[in-house]
Prior knowledge:
Elements: H1 8-23, H2 25-30, H3 41-50, E1 64-67, E2 74-78, H4 93-103, H5 115-128, H6 139-151, H7 155-162, H8 166-182, H9 185-195, E3 197-199, E4 202-203, H10 205-213, H11 222-229, H12 245-262, H13 268-276, H14 299-311, H15 319-328, E5 332-335, H16 339-352, E6 360-366, E7 373-378, E8 381-382, H17 395-399, E9 408-409, E10 423-424, H18 430-439, E11 448-450, E12 468-469, E13 472-473, E14 484-486, H19 488-493, H20 497-507, H21 509-518, H22 526-533, E15 549-550, H23 552-563, E16 567-569, E17 574-578, E18 593-595, H24 599-609, H25 630-634, E19 639-644, E20 651-656, E21 661-667, H26 678-696, H27 710-713, E22 717-719, H28 728-737, E23 741-751, E24 759-763, E25 767-769, E26 773-781
Parallel strand pairs: 1-5, 8-9, 23-26
Antiparallel strand pairs: 1-2, 3-4, 5-17, 6-7, 6-21, 10-15, 11-14, 12-13, 16-18, 19-20, 20-21, 22-25, 24-26
Helix pairs in contact: 1-3, 1-8, 4-11, 4-12, 6-7, 6-8, 6-9, 11-12, 12-13, 14-15, 16-26, 18-20, 18-21, 18-24
Amino acid sequence: MRKRDHNIFTNALSLLVCGVLAGVVVAAAVFPAVAVGALSAKAGADSFASLPASLEVPTPPQISYLYARDGQTLIATFYDENRHDIDLSDVPQVMRDAIIAAEDQRFYEHNGVDIQGVFRAFLANQSSGDATGQGASTLTMQYVRQALTYGATSPKDVLAATESTPERKVREMRQAIALEKKLTKDQILQNYLNIAAFGNGAYGIYAASQVYFNKEPKDLTLAEAALLAGLPKAPTAFDPTTESGRPQALARRTYVLNQMVELGMISRQQADLANAEPLEVTGTRTPRDCTQALVNHWGFFCDFFYRWWLEQEEFGVDALSRASKLKSGGYRITSTLDVAIQDSAKRNVEAQLPTGQKDALMLAAIQPGTGYVRAMATNRNFSVDDRDNPPNEIPEKAALGLKATYPNTTNPLMSGGGDVVGYKMGSTFKLFTMIAALENGYPLDFTIQARSPYVSRIYPAGPTDIARCGDRWCPRNASASMNGSRNMWTGFGLSVNTYFVPLLEKVGAEKAINVAQRLGIKFRSSKDRDNIAENGGHLWGAFTLGVSDTVPLELANAYATVAADGIYCEPMPVEELIDVHGEPVTDVVEPRCTEAIKPEVARAAADAARCPLGTPGGTGGCRGGTASGIYRIIGHPVIGKTGTADQNWTGTLVVSSKHLAVAATVANPDRPETPHSYERSATLANNAAAYTMRDAHEGLPVIDFERPPQSLVVGVKVAIPDVRCRSEQDAVAAIQRAGFDVYVEKTQKVASPCPPNTVAGTEPSGSTSKGSTVTVLLSAGPGDEPPPPPTGGGRGGGSNNGGPGTGPVVPPTSN
């Protein structure tokens, strides 16, 4: 590298000569068709000295990279201009030499303006009569022009930086000389290599190396470097990927190689060998945005990240400015996506319901305690191309030309947003009623006599309700085996509708709705919001049966909150964010967590939520579950729930361990109220969720849930009056005075020494939690077995009250 001369004499001479040339030579050399009479040498010298010398050097737009949580697996890129700045040390000498040979052979000799080059351009233009002429622009001047363009804040400034006039060329000269006093030659060369346009959407040498040769600059060969060095002069005309541009690109490469030989940078033999190499463009345009994610099914997570970014006020005043920040800010983003979990989720989804079906099997996975979203998978391609999609099933949408969402869609099916309000997740919402009850003093062993149908005391029948008894709402259980004395363990484990509806009546629907909101349910649909707006949702009894809409990500996170001892964390797609300067941006990506419910309440809810999935341990109150084989598949302690909507519109399983929560649901996104076979939809959702959880837990330590405090297990015990052999009326009155609800079992009387039609006993007997339902058993008269004596303590005594060793094991049922 030639040593720069920075002495005062050289700089002064450059200024003097440039001032004179500004009036005469520049105009004639660069713009031979322009009359130069008005630009006298004196005027040029005077005006040149007064031109601004300072140059604000902006950071040009930079590409942002989105990686998986391993920090190595690239998911997608975002850019307006595909540029990634690198240090000159990462550019091989052969590339540096090639660009100098192509653009500015005296780069290390001049001080920003090549006086010899200007005279040479003047003589060439005068002899050729070429009206366009040789430009005589040095690398420094070219960089000044680019910097002025990127620093422009108005169309007027852009025009001033790029217009073909002698005045613009003179300004470039003045600022180029000033810039060379401020930056070293290597810094200028580095900046030029990072800002220059190379065609095919590639800006800067890093992008060019990737786009044309699928490699980093440090790995470029001589032939490749010579080709790239020839492109900035005319990126479109010399485009080696087009039929017309390829011959010109090869000719330009030959020129660059010959110049390198003349400058002593390479030998003739090296040039000939490089020139003989066939031109193989192996790269392609850099994929852009989520629709071009490196693996298609990662696109749904990528889209969730992008929508999240647009909501963050830290990145701009509105969505447009935030998008611009992402596409020009040069961020390195380490996301929360776990590629192994994501690939497992997609594999298990496709195994159950392949892409191409109108029904969608949608799965989301999130980490308890952080909110890190680990996976989003469905049987859809992430694509805006809907040409092969069938017409929408809804006539009004079809009339507008809207297509169905399969096989291709970019709708946020798993995370919600836009016009995706969600799907009805059925009995999974019983969790919110249970938590509200626990918060309001009802323990796990709180007993209610479940019967089907149950005529609601306070909830009127809606105009479209199928379950109605006159003007009252009267929900039913899915099976007669669910009827009987139930508590939270058995009611939740067997999904007993008529346990949770009267429980909701005691607690208040508005309190259960509030729990759901605290656990992240958004209630996006206008119908849901209307129900909540009316008296806070107090009369929305069907809420506990999951008639409102949500999406898999929200549901998974609600159960993750319980698994995390009540800590709710906002779903987060980013673990680490590094800006263009290599500095971490911490505030915006920190987990956003709050205590949504008390730890002891969460542990009590988790204790009952073991039951549906067959997880052993805890306080031992489970008596069967609706999906009791799930625990055996996963092999880790898990909580969760199955759910189906009216007429089996959906089938859902949500499951969480201390490590991960997954929700999977089957629904028709285009017409969510499409009936399905329960067995089919439930099986598909159960298998996808369970096998994804199994794969995700391979090699992880087994962590059990903590036991709840005894006060939330058995509550405050109240003695049940001994009403044996008393009349039904007296017995009911005595039990009600003790503070219990009463249910009289009249369909089946029991043998007892008490007279027929008097009270044979109660279930439970002895004592039970305050406010529980006590069932009165009527006598059929003397029989072989005496009535059981009163029992005390425990979890309420009697049979089927949820305590250890009581009640039958009920086989799994629907819901």
